[in-house]
Amino acid sequence: MSITASHISKTFGDFAALDKVSLHVPAGKLVALLGPSGSGKTTLLRIIAGLEMADEGSGHILFGNEDVSLLPPGKRGVGFVFQHYALFRHLSVAENIAFGLRIRKGPERPSKATITSRVQELLALVQLEHLGKRYPTQLSGGQRQRVALARALAVQPKVLLLDEPFGALDAKVRRDLRRWLRNFHDGIHITTLFVTHDQEEALEIADDVVILNSGRVEQVGSPQEVYDRPATPFVHKFLGNVNQILLPWEGIIQGTKVPVEENVAFVRPHDIELLRPETAQPGALATVLDLHAAGPIAKIAAKRTDGRGIIDIELPRAYFDQLNLREGDTILLRARLEPVCQTILVTKPPMT
Amino acid sequence: MFPRLKKHTVMPGFGMTLGFTLFYLSLIVLIPLSAVFIRAGGLSWHSFVDVAFSARELAAYRVTFLASLAAAMVNAAFGLVLAWVLVRYPFRGRRVIDALVDLPFALPTAVAGISLTAIYGKNGWIGRWIDPEGDMFLRFLSANGLLGDCTGYGFAGIRVAYTELGIFVAMTFIGLPFVVRTLQPVIEELEPEMEEAAATLGATRLQTLSKVILPELMPALLTGFALAFARALGEYGSIIFIAGNQPGKTEIVPLRILTKLEESNASAAHTPYAEATAVAAIMLVASFILLLLINLLQKWSRRHHAH
Ligand SMILES: Nc1ncnc2c1ncn2[C@@H]1O[C@H](COP(=O)(O)OP(=O)(O)O)[C@@H](O)[C@H]1O
Ligand SMILES: [Mg+2]
Q: Residue B16: inside a domain, yes or no?
C-alpha cells in the first residue's frame, strides 16, 4: 500500500520543523528519507505513524487511497521501528514479538497456537530462531533491532516505518544489516519508508531517495539521479565530497543575479583531471599541498596559483603512481565533465 | 586446566572491602540486634510466650502491621501517581510540590505528630468537617445538620485522631517520600518510545499502562513499598500523638516496648528490660521475614533487568 504525505507542516512553538513537505512512497518500494540531523526526518515519520499531529489544516497522510490523518497510531496499520529499539525489557524476545497479537481483543485475537507459530515464523524471518527465550538485555544491538522489526511486522502492518534503524550500531554491523534489510525487503515487498542521515546507506539500499533539509524537500529521485544530477547546492554538498569553485563572473539563478563572490560551480573530486603543466592545455594551475595514497583511491589537495581556493582531487591509485607527484609540484587541473551547476547558471564556461 | 587468572578490578582488594563491610555491619547492626535476642533469652520459654503474646501485645502487633501494610499500599499507589505527574507533566509549581515531598523526611516526627493531631482533631481544619463531634460536621454534614434537613440523610462522620485510622494517617504521611523518590529516577529513564511502540502495535492506554509501564516500574515500586513499610513499622514519634494509645486498641509495638521498660511492676522472676526485649524480638523477626519476602518478590520481578 502506498504512502502519500501532502503539504505537511509542523511547528514547535515558532520553529518550523516541517514546511509543506510532500512525499510519495509507491506500494512495495523501499524509499529513504535522507537529511542531516535536525532536518525534520523523525518528525515527518512520526506524523506519518500518527505519533505526532501535523499542524492543524496543514495537509494529509494517505495510505493507498485512505486518508489516515485523523486515525490514532494503533488504527493506522503501521509498523514502526525506533532508533533505540524500544523493546519491552520485561518480556522475552518471543513475547515482545507476540505483544501486538496478544493484546488484541475478542475475535480479532488469534489462538495461542496461531500466535506461537506466527512468532516462530517471524523469528526465522529475522534469523533469530534460537533466541526466542532470551531477554532484550541479553542481545546485541543488531539482534535487538531485528527483534524490533519482527515485533513491528507481527501485526501485519500496511506500511513499515524505520527511524534510523542502524543509527546506534557500529560501522561493520551497519553495513551488514543494511544489505540484509535490502534482501529482506526484496523478499517481502512491504512499502517501507526508511529514515537515515547517512547518504551512503540511503544511496546503497533505497529504490528512491527523498532529501530533506531544514524541513523542506530538496530533491526526490533514484539514488543515481540524485547523485549524478543534484538539484540544489545543498544536495551537492550533502551527497559526497564536492569542490566549490568560485567563478570569476556573475551568475543567474531563475532570473536573479548572483554576485561574483557567491557564484559557485560544483565539481566532485573524482571528476577533476590532473595534468602536467607542460601539456599546456586550458585549465587552472595549482600547487600540490597534500598527498594521501592509502587505499585504492589517492587523495590530493592542491592550492590554485591564482589564489582562488583549495581543490580536492581523487585519482585511481595506478594513475597516481604513474604521475609520481611530490608536495610542492605544480599541476594543471580541469573539470572532466561540464561542472554541475545547473541551478547556478554561469554566463561563461568555467575553468578554461 | 588453565590456571585461574586473578580478575582485576578498579577498587582495591575484595578481601579487605568484605572484611570492612562485615566488621562495620556487625558493629552498627548485628551486635545491637543480637543483644535483643540475648536479653530476651534471659526469659524462660514459658514466660517469653506469656510476655510476648499477651492479648495486649497481640493487639499491638496487629494494629502496627496492618496499619503499616495499608499505609505502604496507599503510598505505593499514590506515590506512583505523584512521581509520574512530577516527572512527566511540566506544570507551574512543580518544583514546589517536588520539594514538599521531602517534608515528611525533614520534619521532626514530633512536629508531624502534633500537626496531624491538630489537623485531624475534632477542632482541626479537617477534623471539624469529618469528626462526628466536629462543629462544621454537625452543622452541615450530619443527619441533624443542613444536609440532614435538606435530604433526610446525613453522614456518620469519621474519627481520625485517637483511632487506628490516625495511626494509618501518620504512617502514610511519613512513608510518602520513599515511594516517590525511588520511582522518580526510574520513570525519568523510562523511554516514552516504549509507550509509543505499544501504541503503534494497537495497545489501548490501559493496556500500555498495565502491560508495559507497570511491569517496567514494578521492581522500583516494590522497593519503595518495602521502604515505606519498614519506615511505618518503626515509626514512633508522630504516631503516639495521634494514636491516643488506648491499651489493646491503638497502642503500637514500639510504644509497648517503651512502656514495658518503664513498668516497674514486673514480677520478680524477670526484669522489665527482658520483657521489653521479648516484644522487640518478635517485632524484629516478623519485620525481617516480611522484608525478606518483599526482597524475594523484588528479585523475581527484576529478573530480566540485569544488564
Ligand atoms: N517535541 C519537540 N519540541 C520542540 N522541538 C522539536 C521537537 N521535536 C523535534 N523538534 C525540533 O525539530 C527539528 C527536527 O527534529 P527531528 O525531526 O527530530 O530531526 P531529525 O530526525 O531529522 O534529526 C529539530 O530542530 C528539533 O529540535
Ligand atoms: Mg531523528
A: no
Task: Report chain A residues whose CB lies below 8 A from the CB of B216.
Answer: 88-90
pTM for this entry = 0.80
A168 and B CB contact within 8 Å: no
On whether residue B195 sits in a domain, the answer given is: yes
Report the alpha-carbon distance of residue A29 to residue A52 in Å, rounded. 24
B103 and B215 both lie in a single domain: yes
**Is residue B236 included in any domain, yes or no?**
yes
Tell me the H-state helices in A16-140: 41-49, 73-76, 93-102, 112-125
Do B103 and B249 sit in the same domain of this protein?
yes
Other C-beta atoms lying within 10 Å of the C-beta of residue A165: 25
B288/B234 Cα distance (integer angstroms): 12
How far apart (Å, rounded) are the C-alpha atoms in residues B307 and B190? 15
Could you tell me if B144 and B263 lie in one domain? no
In a domain, B3, yes or no: no
Count of other CB atoms within 10 angstroms of residue A270 = 15
Of B201, B204, B307, the CB nearest to A99: B201
In this structure, the answer to whether residues B148 and B297 fall within a common structural domain is no
| Owning domain of residue B130 | 122-159
Same domain? B150 vs B170: no
Average confidence (pLDDT) per 10 residues, chain A, 352 residues: 92 91 93 94 95 88 91 92 92 94 90 93 91 92 92 93 88 86 89 92 92 93 89 84 74 65 77 80 83 86 84 87 85 72 45 45
Q: Which of B186, B200, B302, B305 to mutate to test the interface with A (most CBs of A within 10 A)?
A: B200
Q: Look up residue A248 and give its three cell numbers.
A: 570569476
Is B181 in the same domain as B152? no
- Identify the CATH number of the domain in which residue B56 sits: 1.10.3720.10
For chain B, what is the domain count?
Answer: 2
**Which residues from chain A sit within 8 angstroms of residue B211, using beta carbons?**
99, 103
∠ Cα A211 A217 A219 (to 5°): 55
Q: What are phi and psi of A59, to 5 degrees?
A: 160, -170
Q: Which atom of ligand 1 is nearest to the CA of A45?
A: 17
